């Protein structure tokens, strides 16, 4: 089962955070943040997958969807869970008015790339992407 999670579902989201990150604590703050979009996949009481990202409003009045993370437990891969999560995420963005979606993944992440390509995703036309991370100190 795929469920969209919001602030009222913070318990389910925290279970997903604990399942895939091993820590908890920031789920409610994330779910309350503007544009937060998150889904959790369950098999009965077991959390088996999740995805989260943001619906981003642009200055030109258009909007886009950013998928930050999608993960499925090893035991539930190749069963359509990742595809169902991605479809739900994309549908939510489309309903919110987004016309594009972007994400990044590792070049060597063959299973993820195969999923994204099978669903119509294409590599950025402007060439390889270089990501920079900055640590912001208080």
Question: What does this protein structure show overall?
Answer:
This protein is α+β, with helices and mostly antiparallel strands. The protein has a single domain (about 1-120), classed as Aminopeptidase. It is about 30% helix and about 25% strand. It contains 4 helices and 5 strands, in the order βααβββαβα. It has helices at about 10-20, 25-30, 80-95, 110-120, and strands spanning about 1-5, 35-45, 45-55, 65-70, 100. Strand 4, helix 3 and strand 5 (about 100) form a beta-alpha-beta unit. The mean pLDDT is about 90. Its EC number is 2.3.-.-. This is GNAT family N-acetyltransferase.
Features:
Aminopeptidase, five-stranded mixed β-sheet, 30% helix, acyltransferase activity
What is the overall pLDDT average? 88
- Determine Rg (CA atoms, Å): 15 Å
Total number of helical segments?
A: 4
CATH topology: Aminopeptidase
CATH superfamily: Gcn5-related N-acetyltransferase (GNAT)
Order of helices and strands: EHHEEEHEH
Q: Tell me the β content.
A: 25-35%
Number of domains: 1
Specify the CATH class.
Answer: Alpha Beta
**What proportion of the residues is helical, as a percent range?**
25-40%
Shape: globular
Strand order of the largest sheet: 1-2-3-4-5
Structural class, judged by helices and strands?
A: alpha+beta
Roughly how many Å apart are the termini?
A: 40 Å
The largest pleated sheet is described as:
5 strands, mixed
Number of strands: 5
Q: Unreliable stretches, pLDDT < 50, 5 or more residues?
A: none
> What would you say the CATH architecture is?
3-Layer(aba) Sandwich
């Amino acid at each position: 089962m795929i469920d969209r999670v919001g602030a009222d579902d913070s318990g389910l989201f925290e279970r997903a955070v604990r399942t895939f990150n091993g820590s908890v604590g920031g789920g409610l703050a994330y779910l309350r943040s503007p544009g937060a979009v998150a889904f959790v996949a369950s098999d009965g009481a077991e959390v088996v997958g999740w995805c989260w990202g943001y619906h981003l409003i642009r200055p030109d009045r258009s909007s886009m969807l950013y998928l930050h993370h999608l993960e499925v437990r090893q035991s539930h891969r190749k069963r359509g869970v990742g595809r169902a999560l991605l479809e739900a995420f994309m549908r939510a963005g489309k309903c919110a008015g987004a016309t594009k979606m972007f994400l990044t993944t590792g070049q060597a992440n063959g299973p993820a790339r195969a999923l994204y390509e099978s669903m119509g995703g294409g590599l950025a036309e402007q060439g390889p992407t270089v990501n920079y991370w900055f640590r912001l100190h208080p």
